[in-house]
From TrEMBL:
Signal peptide limits: none
Top-level taxonomy: Eukaryota, Viridiplantae, Streptophyta, Embryophyta, Tracheophyta
Family statement: Belongs to the HEBP family.
Gene3D superfamilies in alphabetical order: Regulatory factor, effector binding domain
SUPFAM superfamilies with a match to the protein in the record: Probable bacterial effector-binding domain
Name listed for the protein in its UniProt record: SOUL heme-binding protein
UniProt cross-references to InterPro entries, sorted A to Z: Reg_factor_effector_dom_sf, SOUL_heme-bd
Length: 137
């Protein structure tokens, strides 16, 4: 198993306007040049995530529908009071992503994160963010 396992939520793209999601497994650096070939019946697709900026909120326990939504809302509220803005220009298809770092059999001290793509609020950075401008709220 890889860590983290990242689940990205795409709101309203499923049947009857329900949310859909994609699950991604991290491929360690030592396998990235020559990745293992998945079984064809699994219909797995290689995906390379371009460099981008995300805001992160960490939470513990198991990542379940009810607490994931609450944590994503808390992150959105925090960002609304910060110099960072959630993109609303269609730059991303995902509302947010969940990163889970622990095996399901790890019961205590679990680590999860909610990730939201962010861009700066016009501070002049070409790439939309800067590592020196990170703030905690």
């Amino acid at each position: 198993m890889t860590a983290p396992v990242v689940t990205s939520i795409v709101p309203g793209s499923g049947p009857f306007h329900s949310s859909s999601y994609s699950v991604r497994f991290y491929l360690p650096v030592k396998f990235q040049d020559d990745p293992p070939t998945p079984l064809p019946e699994l219909k797995l697709e290689h995906y390379r995530w371009d460099a981008h900026c995300v805001a992160v909120r960490e939470f513990s326990g198991y990542a379940k529908d009810d607490n994931v939504v609450k944590e994503a809302q808390k992150l959105a509220v925090s960002l609304s009071r910060s110099p960072w803005a959630l993109p609303n220009d269609g730059a991303t298809d995902y509302a947010y992503s969940i990163a889970q770092y622990d095996s399901p059999f790890h019961f205590i001290g679990r680590v999860n994160e909610v990730w939201a793509d962010v861009k700066s609020s016009g501070d002049g950075d070409d790439d939309g963010c800067s590592s020196s401008a990170i703030a905690a709220y």
